[in-house]
Design brief:
This protein is mainly β. It has two helices and 15 strands. The protein has a 15-stranded mixed beta sheet with strand order 8-7-6-5-4-3-2-1-15-14-13-12-11-10-9.
């Protein structure tokens, strides 16, 4: 089972839906600041089964990157001790992006999913419009790729924070918006649909009003076709990730907010 399809990002299991014009409209001022921490619980739900199998922590800090004001975000996922017996999972993502316009600068990934391992190291070259990517799958050796870099292209941690800057005053209910997501040796074109306000369950924390977005998932061994990945952001100006739901052939995986420390 490739849990990289299910992690708090859950964003990079998206299908290619077409390339549109322009990026998502964004705010002039970001709703987050250095020092922020977000803790999420990852749950597997199938019928009466609703078990927390992992925890995810996202931490944001302010740094200087080659003389430029930047953010560094660390995103770690660790499976629960009882689940380690069946399927040990460790995800360690790091992303560096500019404070001014959230432009990605560097990305690293270290993944352990059972017997599967993967590492990524990206360096973004915006002048040449390339991602210089070093990728290693299952210890087969590091391979270098020159990935074409377009506007609106992000790695997973940078994408999470970019989406939190969406300017809802310039987005319409039912509107479809384009961006690109890079992981491993590929870039995926993604179309998001904005659905407006919606209530979502946070488990023991009860229901909370949020902003709902959807996109389609890849049909394959784990996902059935014609289903939608759903995710909710808080509707309080901070746009904190509240929940993500990825449908599987058998059940679904949920990521739910457990704690937010601004």
């Amino acid at each position: 089972m490739r849990w990289k399809l299910l992690i708090a990002g859950l964003f990079f299991s998206l299908t290619v839906l077409g390339q549109g014009k322009g990026c998502i409209p964004t705010l002039d001022k970001t709703p987050f600041k250095a020092g922020e921490e977000i803790e999420l619980g990852l749950f597997y739900k199938w019928g009466l089964v609703n078990t927390e199998v992992a925890q995810a922590v996202v931490k944001l800090e302010g740094i200087t990157f080659k003389g430029e004001s930047a953010y560094h975000v660390g995103f770690q996922v660790k499976s629960a001790p009882f689940f380690d017996v069946f399927f040990k999972m460790r995800e360690d993502f790091h992303s560096w992006f500019t404070v001014k316009d959230l432009k990605p600068l560097k990305f690293t990934r270290n993944t352990l999913e059972g017997k599967y391992t993967a590492t990524n190291e990206y360096h973004y070259d915006w002048e040449k419009k390339l991602i210089h990517a070093d990728v290693n799958f299952n210890g087969r050796g590091m391979e270098h790729y020159e990935i074409p870099l377009r506007d609106c292209t992000y790695d997973l941690p940078a994408l999470i924070f970019y989406l939190r800057t969406m300017d809802l005053s310039r987005m319409r209910k039912g509107g479809r918006y384009n961006l690109s997501f890079a992981i491993d040796d590929a870039v995926f074109d993604v179309v998001l649909t904005f659905h407006g306000k919606d209530s979502v369950s946070l488990g023991k924390a009860g229901n909370r009003e949020g902003l709902l977005f959807t996109c389609s998932v890849v049909s394959g061994a784990m996902f059935a076709g014609n289903q939608e990945l759903k995710f909710w952001f808080s509707d309080d100006g901070s746009f904190v990730p509240l929940a993500v739901m990825a449908p599987l052939r058998w059940g679904a995986v949920w990521a739910r907010l457990k704690e937010y420390r601004p």
